[in-house]
């Protein structure tokens, strides 16, 4: 009883402790989930001191999506969001760099760029567009600014001023950004512009051609299975190309199986029967009503003369088919194309007409009098009060022409002007027409174009899903996942994923899988994932986790590249050991190698060296440094070891000028490009050795969440 009494006395305290614990748990999850607008949880990505906030990121993604819709481009939303994120990081890094370098655009520079005699290119479109909209006599930044500050002077409503100020502020920001970028590019180019030493060195490189005699032995002369590659060899090969394996953010190596959800053979057979049955029905009934209720069939009805039918198969069908007849035109890629001829008439296809109307939609009787009096349509069209066309060809055998207009154009006499009055949105409107030419009637076909797509059945989807789920359940380690796939009928592929990956294996709608992968430990196998559109099933095993600066030398992800490099280096050393010092001259080396002595030319910075191939920088350097007449080698090349001798050299005789060779130097480094660096080059330069911390997956609903 005493114990119970103590509990009762402290029940308030216990209640408070429990509530505090619950709040701590909830708030802890809330603040670390990445779905909050408070603290670090709102940072979508970070690189160095550059941070992208969720609100800013979301607004930019929404704007980019709207632009895509307006341009009618079908962009993948995950691709778009990661592109936006990198662009925002680039902007942040760039602004930080501008600040560090002290780059600014002064008020005077900005004013001159917008209102000067020669506006900045980034301002020209804005100035031209606004000048046109305001009806200014000529495009002028100064005039646009004056209209903004004094709208009444230009007969503009007072509210135009604030609107123009908002537009002007946007233009200023765009021009300032463009000018800062130009200053940065000029500064960067200036850092690498040729010095006297660079220009002279280039002159020496290109002005001298060295003639060489050489023999070579290719690495393919040694079978791969006769070479033993050790971890030390792999590590050395990796070290030689280490920069290729640098990571800008944590990543994962994966094995994955992707199963496309496609119709089975049974589905295709069932679809074929359904199409054949539908074809019989179409041929035995009028119209297309008999199949209209079947959602598998998409029906489009339209009319067109034969000359306007672009599909040759359809054109051939309507030319020979009887009205009411249907046929399968094609069956390609699980899609059937069916056509039915619904009707055939003779109609006017081509007609040439002139037309006039008043801009205020008023009466055109006075214009009719002028035309009948001999005035031409062209001279009456002023583009302001009277609009129209002097002569235009049109088709009457197309959909959308009002019945009264079609009848008038078919029946009125050629050469006679007439007025057609109609009502548009309750308002009477009149148009003056004259038929200049009217060609003879042609056959016009009324057709039904019917498409049928074979979809996978629910039974097929269930079978594919069950099979893959069973495989994953029975192979729950990364090792088993890859080892047993072929026997189960699956093909395992390798991939590389980071938080910035928009997809797994270019599969759309797979960011939830990316999230799971980045959260998983090495060796784990992901639950089977199916996309929202039911187009594929995905299973993934995480084979490696990279959290350091480089992909390690022994990672299977880069095994092929590292082994190839190690193999080449090992073979090169074997050949060097075999031939070094074993002959007195090139003829002797040629005899040992079983080859001939060849000759060729070498220019130090030329892309090719004799007949030895492209990019032989080590050999070119050796040739440039070699003493004339001396046997050099064996030297390791890209594909062979080479032994050579410089037999002579020629100087082009061209005089050295700093300007010529400095320009050549700059062009070789790409510094003559007026547009400066590309965005990815700029991003890599500004990122430097900093790591990217991409938190955007925190805002993605993961698998099973």
What do you see in this structure?
42% of the residues lie in helices and 23% in strands. The two termini are 47 Å apart. It is extended, with a radius of gyration of 38 Å. It folds into six domains: 1-32; 107-192, no CATH class; 205-243 and 560-651, Chitinase A, domain 3 (Roll), CATH 3.10.50; 247-262 and 457-549, Chitinase A, domain 3, CATH 3.10.50; 265-347 and 448-453, no CATH class; 350-438, Roll (Chitinase A, domain 3), CATH 3.10.50. A four-stranded antiparallel β-sheet has the order 16-3-20-19. The protein has a four-stranded antiparallel β-sheet with strand order 13-4-15-14. Strands 5-12-7-6 form a four-stranded antiparallel β-sheet. Mean pLDDT is 86; it is low at 1-40. The protein is of the alpha+beta class and 705 residues long.
Short description:
With 705 residues, the chain is an alpha+beta fold.
Counted by DSSP, the helix tally is 23
Low-confidence runs (pLDDT<50, min 5 residues)?
1-40
Tally of structural domains: 6
CATH topology of the largest domain: Chitinase A, domain 3
Number of strands: 21
- Corresponding CATH architecture of the largest domain: Roll
Give the rounded overall mean pLDDT: 86
List the helices and strands and how they pair.
Blueprint: H1 2-9, H2 11-32, E1 43-47, E2 50-53, H3 54-70, H4 77-101, H5 107-115, H6 121-134, H7 141-149, H8 160-192, H9 196-207, E3 208-218, H10 231-240, E4 251-260, H11 265-284, E5 297-305, H12 312-320, E6 326-332, E7 335-348, E8 350-358, H13 365-372, H14 377-380, E9 386-395, H15 403-411, E10 417-424, E11 427-438, E12 441-453, H16 458-474, H17 478-483, E13 493-498, H18 511-519, E14 529-530, E15 536-546, H19 559-579, H20 586-593, E16 598-602, E17 608-609, E18 613-614, H21 617-625, E19 631-636, E20 640-651, H22 658-668, H23 679-687, E21 692-694
Antiparallel strand pairs: 1-2, 1-21, 3-16, 3-20, 4-13, 4-15, 5-12, 6-7, 7-12, 8-9, 8-11, 10-11, 14-15, 17-18, 19-20
Helix pairs in contact: 3-4, 4-23, 6-7, 6-8, 7-8, 9-22, 10-19
């Amino acid at each position: 009883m005493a114990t119970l009494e103590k509990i009762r006395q402290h029940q308030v305290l216990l209640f408070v402790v429990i509530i505090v614990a619950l709040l701590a748990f909830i708030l802890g999850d809330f603040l670390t989930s990445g779905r909050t607008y408070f603290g670090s949880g709102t940072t979508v990505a970070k690189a160095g001191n550059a941070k992208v906030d969720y609100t800013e990121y979301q607004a930019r993604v929404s704007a980019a999506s709207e632009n895509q819709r307006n341009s009618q481009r079908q962009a993948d939303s995950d691709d778009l969001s990661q592109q936006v994120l990198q662009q925002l990081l680039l902007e942040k890094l760039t602004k930080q760099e501008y600040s560090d370098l002290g780059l600014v655009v002064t008020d005077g520079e900005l004013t001159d760029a917008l209102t000067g005699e020669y506006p900045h290119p980034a301002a020209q479109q804005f100035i031209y567009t606004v000048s046109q909209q305001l009806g200014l006599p000529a495009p002028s930044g100064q005039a646009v600014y004056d209209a903004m500050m004094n709208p009444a002077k230009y007969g503009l409503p007072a509210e135009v001023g604030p609107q123009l100020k908002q537009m002007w502020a946007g233009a200023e920001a765009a021009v300032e950004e463009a000018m800062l970028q130009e200053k940065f590019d000029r500064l960067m180019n200036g850092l690498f512009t040729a010095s006297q030493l660079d220009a002279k060195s280039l002159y020496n490189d290109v002005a001298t051609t060295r003639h060489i005699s050489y023999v070579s032995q290719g690495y393919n002369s040694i079978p791969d299975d006769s070479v033993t590659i050790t971890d030390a060899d792999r590590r050395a090969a990796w070290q030689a190309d280490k920069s290729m394996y640098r990571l800008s953010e944590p990543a994962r190596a994966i094995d994955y199986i992707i199963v496309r959800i496609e119709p089975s053979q049974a589905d295709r057979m069932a679809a074929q029967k359904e199409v054949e049955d539908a074809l019989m029905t179409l041929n035995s009934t009028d119209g297309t009503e008999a199949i209209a209720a079947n959602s598998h069939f998409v029906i489009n009805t339209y009319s067109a003369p034969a000359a306007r039918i672009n599909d040759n198969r359809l054109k051939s069908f309507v030319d020979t088919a009887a009205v009411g007849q249907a046929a399968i035109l094609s069956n390609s890629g699980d899609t059937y194309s069916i056509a039915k001829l619904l009707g055939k008439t003779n109609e006017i296809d081509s007609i040439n007409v002139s037309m006039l109307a008043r801009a205020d939609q008023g009466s055109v009787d006075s214009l009719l009098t002028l035309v009948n009096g001999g005035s031409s349509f062209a001279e009456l069209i002023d583009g302001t009060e009277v609009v129209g066309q002097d002569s235009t060809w049109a088709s009457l055998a197309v959909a959308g022409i009002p019945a009264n207009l079609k009848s008038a154009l078919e029946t009125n006499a050629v050469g006679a002007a007439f007025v057609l009055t109609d009502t548009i949105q309750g308002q009477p409107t009149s148009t003056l027409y004259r038929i200049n030419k009217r060609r003879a009637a042609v056959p016009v076909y009324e057709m039904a174009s019917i498409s049928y797509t074979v979809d996978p059945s629910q039974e097929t989807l269930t079978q594919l899903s069950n099979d893959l789920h069973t495989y994953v359940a029975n192979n729950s380690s990364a090792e088993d996942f890859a080892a047993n796939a072929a026997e189960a009928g699956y093909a395992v592929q390798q991939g590389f994923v980071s938080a910035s990956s928009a997809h797994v294996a270019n599969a759309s709608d797979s960011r939830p899988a990316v999230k799971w992968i980045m959260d998983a430990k090495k060796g784990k196998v992901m639950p089977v994932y199916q996309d929202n559109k039911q187009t594929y099933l995905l299973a993934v095993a995480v084979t490696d986790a990279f959290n350091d600066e480089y992909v390690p030398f022994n990672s299977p992800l880069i095994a092929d590249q590292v082994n190839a490099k190690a193999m080449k280096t090992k073979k090169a050393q074997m050949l060097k050991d075999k031939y070094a010092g074993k002959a007195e001259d090139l003829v002797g080396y040629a005899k040992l190698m079983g080859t001939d002595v060849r000759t060729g030319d070498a220019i130090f910075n030329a892309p090719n060296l004799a007949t030895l191939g492209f990019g032989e920088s080590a050999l070119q350097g050796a040739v440039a440094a070699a003493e004339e007449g001396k046997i050099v080698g064996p030297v390791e090349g890209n594909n062979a070891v080479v032994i050579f001798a410089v037999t002579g050299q020629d100087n082009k005789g061209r005089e050295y000028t700093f300007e010529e060779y400095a320009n050549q130097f700059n062009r070789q480094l790409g510094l003559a490009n007026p547009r400066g660096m590309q965005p990815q080059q700029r991003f890599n330069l500004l990122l430097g050795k900093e790591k990217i911390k991409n938190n955007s997956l925190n805002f993605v609903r993961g698998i099973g969440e």
